[in-house]
Amino acid sequence: MRYLMMSKASDTPPDETLYVEMAAFVEELTAAGILLATGGLEPGGIRVTSTGDEITVTDGPFAEAKEAVAGFALVEVRSKEEAIELTRRFRKIVGDGESVIQQVFGA
Questions:
Q1: Distance between CA 4 and CA 73 in Å, rounded?
Q2: 34: closest CA among 1, 5, 76, 73?
Q3: The whole model's pTM is what?
Q4: Residues 20-54: pLDDT tens digits?
Q5: CB pairs under 8 A, 24+ apart, for 15-18?
Q6: Contact, 55 vs 48, CB < 8 A?
């Protein structure tokens, strides 16, 4: 099962400890074959909407910074519970904030 784990932006600036702990976490998941992709996202983005034959393109940002997704990890795990546990471990490393987990279908 694949899950997309997304984290919203935080007001807390990262420190050296965070970088060290995250590097170890990413290395562990990569070595285990769990982590398929990870990355940060630009805060703006582009929205493309369609209504009938009309396509509208709008540059972001669209939400307050605290509501925007700032980063993601795509993981392959055996269960939803395993995805939740990985996200718990991630939150313990990065501290206060919010993450969203969604199963990826068709992959």
A1: 6
A2: 76
A3: 0.82
A4: 999 999 999 999 999 999 998 887 788 899 999 99
A5: 18/93, 18/94, 18/95
A6: yes
Q: What is the pLDDT of residue 65?
A: 59
Nearest-angstrom CA–CA distance, 20 and 71: 17
Residue 6 token pair: 């997304």
* Tokens describing residue 57: 């393109």
For the segment 46-101, what is each residue's pLDDT rounded down to a tens digit? 889 999 999 999 988 776 656 678 899 999 999 999 999 999 999 999 988 899 99
Question: Residues near 22 by Cβ (< 8 Å), separated by ≥ 6?
Answer: 93, 94
Q: Quick check: 96 and 66 in contact, CB under 8 A?
A: no
Start-to-end C-alpha separation, the chain: 8
Tokens of 71: 């980063």
